[in-house]
C-alpha cells in the first residue's frame, strides 16, 4: 500500500520535515526519546520531507505496480466505463453553465471511447428547478439524480462521499468537474478517497488514440508551457475545467427523449459539516463570463484614463469590460475583470483585445471566444497568433474611431 513511511530507528524528531511540508502533511509528536515524525491526512506524497530529512528516515512506498501483471491491470481497468460530468447547481437549483459546457465535450470523448455520458445531479429535496431534462438535452445519456436536503448546501465532504459511493458501485472511466470554487474543493476530496489522480484547470481534453487514455492538458510553470497529463494506472481519470473553455452544445430534444433519469440515494451515514447562516450575492455587474461581447484592455492601453475609451466601446457594443493581470495589479480595475489563467476563462461571441500582448497565461482564458479582434502597435505581438482579425495600430485611437462609427 502506498504512503509515507518513517523509520523510527533513524528519526531524531528534528522537525525539518515539518518546515519543508507545505500541506501540513507531517507532524512531529512525543517526548524524547519517543519523539518521531508521522504523516497526517494532509500528506500528498510530494516528497519534500524525504529530501529534507538529514537522517534519511522518511521514504514513500507506492503501490502503482505491486504484484499486478500488465494483463491483470488491463482486466481491472477494463471494468471502468462511461464519462461522468458533475453538474453543480446554483442556489436556485439551476445547473451552472459549465455543466453544459462539460457535457458537450464529454459527448465527444464518449464517442471516441464508445461509451455513455452520465451527469451527476445532486439537489435539495425541495429544489424548485428540475435540471435533469436539460442535462439530457445537452448530451447526457443518463442523469443520476439525488434529491436530499443534505445536498442543499454545497458541503464538499457530503458530496464527495456521495460521488465515491456511486463511483465504487458503477465504476466510471472519467469524471469531469467545473473548476468553480466548489468544484476545486470537491474534486481533490474525491480523488483522495478513490486513490486516483486529478488534473486541475485543464484547457484541453482529448483521448490518446493509441492507449485510449484521457489526455489532460493544462498550463504549467506559470503558464510558460502546456503540460499534457495522463493517469494510466488508476480509475477514474479526473479533471477540473474552467468555465468558458468549451462551448455549450445545442439542445437536442430527441436525445433527451432517449435518455433516462435514475433516482439514487445518499447513504444515511453522511452528514453535513457546514451550516449556512446567510448568503450574500455578488452584484450582477460582477460577472464577465456570461458576456456575449467582451472588450479586454491590456498594458498597451497606456494609462488608467484610457480605460474610459475601452468602456465606451464595450457599452456601444452592449458588452462588458475585461482586462489583463497587470491592470488589476496596478489597481486600475477590480479582480473580477481579469481574464486569463489566474483570472476567469471566457467564451464570448466577440472579443476585442486592446493593447494586450498575448502571453500564454492570458490566451489560456480566451480559447472559447468565437471571434477575436486584436489591436496592437507591435506587428509581432503574440496575441495576433490567436486572433481572427489583426489590427496594427494605436489601440486607443482605433477604439475611439470604432466607437464613433458604431454610434453613427
From TrEMBL:
InterPro entries the record matches: 4Fe4S_Fe-S-bd, 4Fe4S_Fe_S_CS, DHS-like_NAD/FAD-binding_dom, ETF_a/b_N, ETF_a/FixB, ETF_alpha_N, ETF_asu_C, Rossmann-like_a/b/a_fold
Cofactor note: Binds 1 FAD per dimer.
Record keywords, A-Z: FAD, Flavoprotein, Iron, Iron-sulfur, Metal-binding
Domain 4Fe-4S ferredoxin-type: residue ranges: 2-31, 34-63
GO biological process assignments: fatty acid beta-oxidation using acyl-CoA dehydrogenase
GO molecular function: electron transfer activity; flavin adenine dinucleotide binding; iron-sulfur cluster binding; metal ion binding
Keyword Acetylation assigned: no
Domain of life: Bacteria
Pfam families, per the entry: ETF, ETF_alpha, Fer4_21
Cofactor: FAD
Residues reported to bind FAD: 299, 324-325, 338-342, 355-362, 376
Quaternary structure and partners: Heterodimer of an alpha and a beta subunit.
Sequence similarity: Belongs to the ETF alpha-subunit/FixB family.
Known role: The electron transfer flavoprotein serves as a specific electron acceptor for other dehydrogenases. It transfers the electrons to the main respiratory chain via ETF-ubiquinone oxidoreductase (ETF dehydrogenase).
Identification of the protein by name: 4Fe-4S ferredoxin-type domain-containing protein
Source organism per UniProt: Collinsella tanakaei YIT 12063
Amino acid at each position: 500500500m502506498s504512503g509515507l513511511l518513517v523509520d523510527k530507528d533513524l528519526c531524531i524528531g528534528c522537525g525539518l520535515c515539518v518546515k519543508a511540508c507545505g500541506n501540513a502533511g507531517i507532524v512531529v509528536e512525543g517526548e524524547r526519546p519517543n519523539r518521531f515524525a508521522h504523516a497526517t491526512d494532509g500528506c500528498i506524497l510530494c516528497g519534500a520531507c524525504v529530501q529534507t530529512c538529514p537522517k534519511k528516515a522518511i521514504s514513500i512506498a507506492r503501490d502503482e505496480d505491486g504484484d499486478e501483471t500488465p494483463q491483470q491491470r488491463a482486466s481491472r481497468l477494463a471494468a471502468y466505463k462511461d464519462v461522468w460530468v458533475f453538474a453543480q447547481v446554483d442556489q436556485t437549483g439551476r445547473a451552472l453553465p459549465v455543466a453544459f459546457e462539460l457535457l458537450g465535450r464529454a459527448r465527444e470523448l464518449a464517442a471516441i471511447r464508445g461509451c455513455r455520458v452520465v451527469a451527476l445531479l445532486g439537489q435539495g429535496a425541495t429544489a424548485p428547478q428540475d435540471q435533469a431534462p436539460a442535462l439530457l438535452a445537452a448530451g447526457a445519456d443518463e442523469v443520476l439524480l439525488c434529491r436530499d436536503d443534505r445536498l442543499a448546501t454545497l458541503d464538499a465532504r457530503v458530496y464527495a462521499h456521495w460521488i465515491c459511493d456511486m463511483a465504487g458501485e458503477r465504476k466510471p472511466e472519467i469524471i469531469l468537474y467545473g473548476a468553480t470554487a466548489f468544484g476545486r474543493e470537491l474534486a481533490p476530496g474525491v480523488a483522495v478517497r478513490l486513490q486516483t489522480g486529478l488534473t486541475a484547470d485543464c484547457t484541453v481534453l482529448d483521448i490518446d488514440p493509441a492507449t485510449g487514455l484521457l489526455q489532460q492538458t493544462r498550463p504549467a510553470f506559470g503558464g510558460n508551457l502546456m503540460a499534457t497529463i495522463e493517469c494510466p494506472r488508476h480509475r477514474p481519470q479526473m479533471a477540473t475545467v474552467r468555465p468558458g473553455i468549451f462551448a455549450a452544445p445545442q439542445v437536442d430534444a430527441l436525445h433527451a427523449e432517449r435518455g433516462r433519469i435514475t433516482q439514487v440515494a445518499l447513504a444515511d451515514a453522511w452528514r453535513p459539516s457546514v451550516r449556512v447562516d446567510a448568503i450574500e450575492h455578488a452584484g450582477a455587474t460582477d460577472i464577465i463570463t456570461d458576456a456575449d461581447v467582451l472588450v479586454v484592455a491590456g498594458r498597451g492601453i497606456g494609462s488608467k484614463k484610457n480605460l474610459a475609451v475601452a468602456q465606451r466601446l464595450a457599452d456601444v457594443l452592449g458588452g462588458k469590460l475585461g482586462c489583463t493581470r497587470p491592470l488589476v495589479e496596478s489597481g486600475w480595475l477590480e479582480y473580477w475583470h481579469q481574464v486569463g489563467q489566474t483570472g476567469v476563462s471566457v467564451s464570448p461571441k466577440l472579443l476585442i483585445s486592446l493593447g494586450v500582448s498575448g502571453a500564454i497565461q492570458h490566451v489560456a482564458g480566451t480559447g472559447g471566444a468565437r471571434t477575436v479582434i486584436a489591436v496592437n502597435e507591435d506587428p509581432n505581438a503574440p496575441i495576433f497568433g490567436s486572433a481572427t482579425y489583426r489590427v496594427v495600430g494605436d489601440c486607443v485611437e482605433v477604439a475611439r474611431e470604432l466607437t464613433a462609427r458604431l454610434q453613427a
